[in-house]
Amino acid sequence: MNKITLSNIKSFLGANFSYYADKLGWYPIYKGEQILYRMEQCKNDCIPTNLCIICNCPTKKKNVFI
User: Fold this and answer.
1) 12-29 burial string, b = 16+ CB within 10 Å, else e?
2) What is the mean pLDDT of residues 43-61?
3) Which residue in 3, 54, 63, 66 is deepest, having the highest Cβ count within 10 Å?
4) 3-class SS letters over 16-47
5) Mean pLDDT of 36-40
6) CA 63 → CA 1, 13, 29, 45, distances in Å?
């Protein structure tokens, strides 16, 4: 488990804001394209396990446009 630091709190809040902003239709299209590109880059590592190998976040929250 990651330690609670100011950086981790900032990342958590930013990621959750982006997730819910997409659900409300506030997310720009170009950011969705960036997410799709990044998910393609880690399709063999993160997608099969449903966890990011770097931060252990669920990939469902990361791939809001898929």
Assistant:
1) eeeeeebeeebeeeebee
2) 76
3) 63
4) HHHHHHHHCCCCCHHHHHHHHHHHHHCCCCHH
5) 81
6) 22, 16, 13, 14
Assigned token pair, 7? 């950086």
> At residue 53, does pLDDT exceed 50?
yes
When computed from its CA atoms, the radius of gyration of the chain, rounded to whole angstroms, is 12
- Residue 34: per-residue pLDDT: 83
Closest listed residue to residue 52, CA positions, set 5, 43, 22, 9? 43
pLDDT at 29: 86
